[in-house]
Design goal:
two-stranded antiparallel ribbon; 174 residues; 3 helices; two-stranded antiparallel sheet
């Protein structure tokens, strides 16, 4: 029986010694706080990195789309133009303005000849005349080209921009 009582007394002594001291609790709390702070810092850093990568991916996608459009337009530059007409023009920006790259192509196969001198800003352009020695100005010769131009103008809502180009001076205007 003494042996049983001595076992009980040892167990009760051991249970009194179990647990943490205040110093041990403070040290473990400090270590846990440091580990949690480092973990939370890493989570925020990963979160910011994710958002930066998403923004970078979106910018790259937009740039890729812009380059696709530009490359398509560059490939089509000069389409349906006469060889004397400049398809690609690089204009140097004046007074620090940005340089301008102009790419031209024609939406119709033929070119309409301007049959009379016109002033800047004219809204009516004479493309044919009766009794003219220039074949591009005879009404019967320009009917199909004019019909193609009218179809494009109608598709554009009734108005369209055209480019007048003087082959002798190599100057033009919209």
């Amino acid at each position: 029986m003494r042996e049983i009582l001595s076992l009980f007394s040892q167990d009760s002594a051991n249970t009194l010694e179990q647990g943490f001291t205040l110093l041990e609790a403070l040290v473990s709390l400090s270590l846990t706080s440091v580990i949690m702070a480092i973990s939370v810092g890493h989570v925020f850093m990963l979160h910011d990195g994710y958002h930066n990568d998403m923004a970078r991916t979106q910018i790259n996608g937009n740039l890729r789309s812009a380059l696709d459009v530009m490359s398509m337009n560059i490939r089509q530059a000069g389409e349906n133009l006469q060889s004397s007409f400049p398809a690609v023009i690089l204009e140097n920006g004046a007074s620090g303005a940005p340089d301008v790259l102009k790419l031209r192509r024609s939406r119709i196969l033929d070119v309409l000849a301007l049959c009379e001198n016109v002033s800047t800003g004219a809204t009516s352009l004479p493309i044919s005349r009766d009794n003219n020695s220039v074949s591009g100005c005879v009404t019967d010769n320009v009917t199909s080209t004019y019909d193609a131009f009218e179809a494009i103008r109608t598709a554009d809502g009734g108005t369209t921009r055209i480019f007048l180009f003087d082959l002798t001076t190599r100057q033009g205007e919209f």
